[in-house]
Amino acid sequence: MHDMAKLEVEFPEVIDVARLSAECMALAAAHAGRPDDIKAALLPVLKAASKDGRANARRILETEGGGLDCARRISYLQDCLIAILNDITINHVYPAARGQIAITAVGGYGRGTLAPGSDIDLLFLLPPKAADMTHKAVEFVLYLLWDMGFKVGHSVRSVEECIRQSIADMTIRTAILETRFICGEESLAEELASRFDKEIVVNTGPEFIAAKLAERDERHRKAGDTRYVVEPNVKEGKGGLRDLHTLFWISKYYYRISDSAELVRLGVLSRQEWRLFQKADDFLWAVRCHMHFLTGKAEERLSFDIQREIAELLGYNSRPGLSNVERFMKHYFLVAKDVGDLTRIFCAALEDQQAKDTPGLTGVISRFARRKRKIAGTVDFVEDHGRITLANPDVFKRDPVNIIRLFHIAGLNGLEFHPDALKRVTRSLSLIDQDVRESEEANRLFLSILTSKREPALILRRMNEAGVLGRFIPEFRKIVSMMQFNMYHHYTVDEHLIRSVEQLSRIDKGLGGDTFPLSVKLIETIEDRTALYVAVLIHDIAKGRQEDHSIAGAKVARKLCPRFGLSPKQTELVAWLIQEHLTMSMTAQTRDLHDRKAITDFAEKVQSLDRLNMLLILTVCDICAVGPGVWNGWKGQLLRTLYYETELLLSGGFSQVSRKERAEAAQQALYDALSDWSQKDRRKYSRLHYQPYLLSVPLEDQVRHAQFIRDSDKERKTLATSVRTHSFHAVTEITVLSPDHPRLLSVIAGACAFAGANIVGAQVFTTSDGRALDTILINREYPEDEDEMRRAATIGRMIEEVLAGTKRLPEVIASRTRGKRPKNRAFPVTPGVSISNTLSNKFTVIEIECLDRPGLLAEITAALADLLLDIQSAHITTFGEKVIDTFYVTDLTGEKINSENRQAAITNRLRSVMAGDHDALRPGAPRHSGGNLSNAGSGGR
To answer: Among 545, 730, 563, 706, which residue's Cα sits nearest to residue 633?
Structure first.
C-alpha cells in the first residue's frame, strides 16, 4: 500500500547527484573524526546545491509550466540532499548507527511533492531500544538541515510507537498513511507499512473518512466557507489543494490503493473526471510554486499584490472587458469549482460502497433503516435520511426539466441533497438545452425557487455549484467565477449576486430590523416581489464586458425577463432597476444631500415612490453582499436621508417655505430649547449661527453645541474638543471649536490620518463671531463605548496639539506611515478630476478619484485652500483601494468658478497632489466659512 521505494522518477536536470555525493564524501574523509569540521565544510556546498537545484526547478516551471512536476523536482532535490547527509553520517560521523535508522518523508512530502517554501516533514524510524549513538546521528542530520535554512518538522519513533499513536491520533494516522522511504534501513519502513495496513487500516475506513470530512468542514469554516473569496488560500481554502489531498487520503485508506489513478478502474470516477482531477492538481501546484518562488516564503494566500505577476508567469493575456489577472482568477475559481464537483462525486461513490460493505444481520438492519421515503407530489424523487435523491436513474433523461424540479422540491421540503443526486446532475448538464431554457414549466419552477419564502439563496448556491444556473441562464454562466481586481469586492460576481438574494430574503422575512429599519418597513409595501428578486439576482450579470455593466445589464434583462415569464411592465421595471442600481448609493455618498439640486436631479431619475422603494432595497442588498463590514450605520443614515428627502419631493410635500423663513424658525426653536438659561445667554448663543448651520443641524445637536461653546467660553478656552459615540450609525463624533484658520479642515484630516481614523464625514461651520465649529465623524473602532471614547479623546488631543502648534503634521503623518508598504499599490486607478457647475445651483462641484493613501484628504484640502477656494461641504467615499472625494466650493466672493483658465489651474494642481508631488503642498491661503464634510465609506458597486 505504501510507496516505500525512493522516487522512481529522477530529475538529473535539477541536481547532479553523483558529482555532489563524491564532493561531499571527499570533504568528510578529509575531516574524519571531527564532526564540527565536517559540518562546517559541508554546509556551503550543500547550501549551494540546494539553491542551484531550486533555481533550476523555477526556470523549468517558468519556461515549460507543469506545477506537479515542479513540486516533484523539489521533492527529488530534497531526497538527494537528505540521502547524501545520511551516507556521510553513517560512514564518517556515527558509524555505529548504520542499519539503525530509516529516514522517511511524511505529509505532502510523503506523496513525493514539495512546494519551494514548505516545511520538510520527516519521520525517523529507529529500533525499539535505540542506542545513544543512533539518537546523536539523527541530531547530526537534523542540525545540518536546520543550518541549511530548512524548516524541518520531525518525529523520532519506533514502529511500535507509530502504531500505538496512530490508533489514538488521526493527524498521526494521516501522516503515516503518506510515509515514503527516502534512505537508511528499509526493513524498518517495510515493517511499519505492513503493520499499519493490518492493524490500523483494516475495518476503520468509515471512521477515518468521517474524521477527514469533519476536519475539512472545520477548515472551510475558518477560511470563510466559500470557494469565491477574491484572495483565496490555495492550500487550505475551499476547492484548494488540501481538498484534493483529502480525496487522496480517503481513497488510499478506504480503497487500499497507492495510486489514485486506480479510482477509474474501481468505477469511482470516470476517465474524464480523473483527467479533471489531474488538471486541477497540476494547476493548483503551479500557482502554489509560483507564489512561494515570488514571495520567497511559504505564502499560501493568493493576495492581490502577487495575482498580476502570477497571471503573467502563467501566460494569461488581457481581452476586452477582462484583464489578464481577472482571466487567471476566473480560471482559478473554475478549477476550485471542479474540485468541489469531484468531492461530491467521490462522496456519493463512498456512500454507496459503505452501504454494500455492511455484511450480515447489521446489513439487513441498515438496509431497513435506509428505506427511502416518498415525497408528497412527486414520483420522480424520494427522501433518504432528510436528503433528496432520484427514484430511479433515468429521471433526468426522461424529462430534463426534472433537473430544475429537483432543486424546487428540495427547497419546498427543506431537504438537503444526496451526493448521488448531485453527481447525476453534474453528469446530466448537457440535457439542459434550448428547449429546457424556453420551457414555461422550467422557468415557472425557477422563479418559484428564486422568490421562495424559505431559503432561496441556499438552493441557488447549490444550483450554481452543480453548474445548473450557468446552463439554464447562459448569461449567468459568463460571470460564474469572475473576480474583479480590486480591494472593494470580497467575492466573485456569481457569489456576490447570490449573497444579494440572501440579504433580500432576510429583509423579506423581517430580519435585520435593527440594522435596516427602513428596508424592513418598505418591503411590506412592495407589490411586485418577483421583479425585485429578479433585479437583485441579475443586477451585475453584465460585468466583464466593454460596455458599462449597468447599461448592458438592462439590455440582458429585457431579453431574459420575458423568458422567465415576466410581463412587459415587469420587464421594464427590472431593466430600469439594473440600469440605475448604483445611482442611489453614489448620490447618497458623493452629493450634498442638503443641496436642493442633488435631490431634484435624483427624483427626476426615479419618478415614482414604488421605484424609489425598490431601488433603496436593491441598494442595501448590493452593499451588504460586497463583503463583511462594508455596510455600516453611516451609509444607512445617508441612504435614509436621501430616501426621505426624495419621498417628500415625489409625494408633493417638499417645503415651499423659503430658506430665510425656515432659518428664522430654526433660530427661534433653539432659543426656546435653551429655556433654563439666562435671557442674555439664550440670545447670545442662539444667534451665533448662519443659515447653513440652522437648516442642516438637528435641534438636539444645536443644543449640545450651544452647551459646549458656553462651557468653553466659561473656561476661557480658545481651542476645545468634545467627543461622543453613536453605535447605531457606527460612527464616533469629534466636535472642534477653534479660531477660524485657513487650514483647519486640512489639520483635522491630518490628525485623523495620524490616528489611523477613517473620516466618514464632517460638518464644517463658521460662527458669527468668527470661530470655526467643525464636527468630524470617524468610523467606530471598538465595540465598547468606553474604549471608543478613550480613542476619540486621544484624537481630539492630537487635533488640539497640532492647532496649538506643539506638533507638526508632516512629521506626525510620516511617523505613522514609515516602513509600511501600501497594500493597494497593486491596483491601477487612473487619477481623475472633474469640475461641474450643473450639479448644484449655488456651488461648483469638484470630484476627484484616485488611489487612497494616508494623509490624502489633508493634502487635497490644503491645496484647495491654497487655490483660494471656499469649501462649503465635502463628501469622502472609499471603495476598497479607490477614493472618490466631492467638494462643493465657491470662490472667496461666494460665486461659482466659471473661468476656464481657473478650472484648468485647479485640475492641474489637484492632479499633482494625487500623484504624490509634495511640491504641490505649499502653505498659505484662507479657509472656508461653512458646510459639511460627509463620507460614507464604500457603497454597492
So the answer is: 730
Over residues 149-169, the pLDDT tens digits come to 999 999 999 999 999 999 888
Q: How far apart are CA 289 and CA 291, in angstroms?
A: 5
Handedness of CA 424, 426, 430, 436 (dihedral sign): positive
- Give the separation between CA 489 and CA 393, rounded to whole angstroms: 41
How far, rounded to the nearest angstrom, does the alpha carbon of residue 295 sit from its chain's CA centroid? 20
Q: Which residue type sits at 504? A: L
**39 to 19, 92, 334, 823: CA distances (angstroms):** 19, 11, 49, 42
Rounded Cα–Cα distance for residues 731 and 780 (Å):
5
The torsion region of residue 916 among left (phi > 0), alpha (psi -120 to 50) and beta comes to left
Tell me the pLDDT tens digit for each residue of 35-73: 999 999 999 999 999 999 999 999 999 999 899 999 999
Contact 882, 848 (CB under 8 A): no
Whether residue 556 contacts residue 541, with contact meaning beta carbons closer than 8 Å, is answered with yes
| DSSP letter string, 236-254 | TSTTSHHHHHHHHHHHHHH
HEC sequence for 435-488:
HHHHCHHHHHHHHHHHCCCCCHHHHHHHHHHCCHHHHHCHHHHCCCCCCCCCCC
Stretch (H or E) spanning 762: strand 759-766
Share of the chain above pLDDT 90, in %: 49
**What would the pLDDT profile of 703-722 be if each residue is shown by its tens digit?**
999 999 999 999 998 889 88
- pLDDT tens for each residue of 108-133: 899 899 999 999 999 999 999 889 99
Can you name the residues that pair with 543 across neighbouring β-strands? none
378 φ, ψ to 5°?
Answer: -150, 145
Calculate the CA dihedral of residues 360, 364, 365, 367 and round it to 10 degrees. Answer: 130
Query: Above 80 in pLDDT, residue 863?
Result: yes
Q: Which residues of 492-513 are buried (b: 16+ CB within 10 A; e: fewer)?
A: bbbbbbbbbbbbbbbbbeeeee
779 beta partners: 731
> E strand or H helix at 583, and its extent?
helix 583-590
Residue 612 has pLDDT above 70, yes or no: yes
**Residue 773's closest CA among 634, 927, 665, 663?**
927
C-alpha cell read off for 454: 424559505
Which DSSP string corresponds to 859-894? HHHHHHHHTT-EEEEEEEEEETTEEEEEEEEE-TTS
Instruction: Check: CB of residue 941 under 8 Å from CB of residue 882.
Output: no
Residue whose entry in the numeric block shows the C-alpha cell 481651542: 719
- Copy the grid coordinates of residue 567: 410581463
* The pLDDT of residue 364: 38
Asked if 174 and 252 count as a contact pair (C-beta separation under 8 A), the reply is no
Neighbours of 650 (CB within 10 A): 17
Lay out the sheet containing 832-836: strands in order across: 720-726, 731-739, 771-779, 759-766, 930-934, 870-879, 882-890, 844-851, 832-836
Element (H, E) at 617: helix 609-624
pLDDT at 581: 97
**Structure confidence by residue, pLDDT tens digits, 313-352:** 999 998 887 889 889 988 998 898 888 888 877 877 777 6
Per-chain mean pLDDT for the chain = 86
Contact 668, 692 (CB under 8 A): no
Q: Nearest 10 degrees: CA dihedral of 324, 327, 329, 333?
A: -170
Q: Starting at the edge strand that comes first in sequence, how are the strands of the sheet with 373-375 ordered?
A: 373-375, 378-384, 387-390, 416-417
On whether the CB atoms of residues 887 and 874 are closer than 8 A, the answer is yes
Beta bridge partners of 154: 122
DSSP 637-683: HHHHHHHHHHHHHHTT----S-HHHHHHHHHHHHHHHTTTS-HHHHH
Contacts of 811 (CB under 8 A, 6+ apart): none
CA–CA dist 329, 484 (Å, integer) = 9
Burial class of 247 by CB neighbour count within 10 A (0 to 12, 13 to 18, 19+):
buried
